[in-house]
Amino acid sequence: MTERSVELLQRALSLTEEERADLAASLLNSLESSPDPDAEGLWQDEISRRAAALDTGNERAVSWNEVQSLASAALQHGRKKR
Known about the structure:
This protein has helices at 3-13, 17-31, 39-56, 64-81. The longest helix has 18 residues, at 39-56. It is mainly alpha-helical and 82 residues long. The protein is 76% helix and 0% strand.
């Protein structure tokens, strides 16, 4: 980081948690580029592909509880490796 960036960071860290959150959100929003004009069509294609895979039985739906269990197990496994 540049000296200027370090100075700004130090000043930002002295803000309240709420002020830092607002600042962080503003900074992140400033980095967002314009949306990809093809994104909507690509998402529609992906949704159609996934729906067809479910309809044909090539994929199965997973409950939220199962997703949580799998994620928790993966996180626990990852912690043990470190």
